[in-house]
Write a structure and sequence with these properties.
The protein has 3 helices and 8 strands; from the N terminus they run αββββαββββα. With about 150 residues, it is an alpha+beta fold. It has a single domain, classed as Thiol Ester Dehydrase, Chain A (Roll). The two termini are about 20 Å apart. One of its GO terms (molecular function) is acyl-CoA hydrolase activity. Keywords: Hydrolase. InterPro entries: HotDog_dom_sf (IPR029069), PAAI_dom (IPR003736), Thioestr_dom (IPR006683).
Length: about 150
Amino acid sequence: MSLAMSRNDLAEYMAQIFPQVHRDFVIEELHEDSIVMRLVVEDRHLRPGGTVSGPSMFGLADVSVYALILARKGRLSLAVTTNSSLDFLRKPLGGKDMIAHCRMLKLGRSLAVGDVLMFSEGSDKPVARATMTYSLPPEGSAAAAFG
């Protein structure tokens, strides 16, 4: 299966449907079965002690899988997260962007599962690992065509 959206088309669509946070996330690389996404870390992403907060890392994992689904399926904005698992492995480096390496494990008609490894920029040691499951609206439905 090929990509339904280019990197630029995907970035523009994400800005359209998530205007409140689209500047937080940057698509670094996009391939058929993987995406590399950056969380631009700012003070609001930090928790006491100067480390990136868990909710910010969850957001990075969730957006990474969602963006890869969009890139593969097209403008499917009503896909929703149905399950998630997030393991915190080590403390992220404060003041460094987070980089997510996401790969699609399954992309079916009604279900998508992605795996995400997250790193502090400049480090090769993962700080967190997530698995995200999405429910996809039925093809041809009004929900699938939204957006």
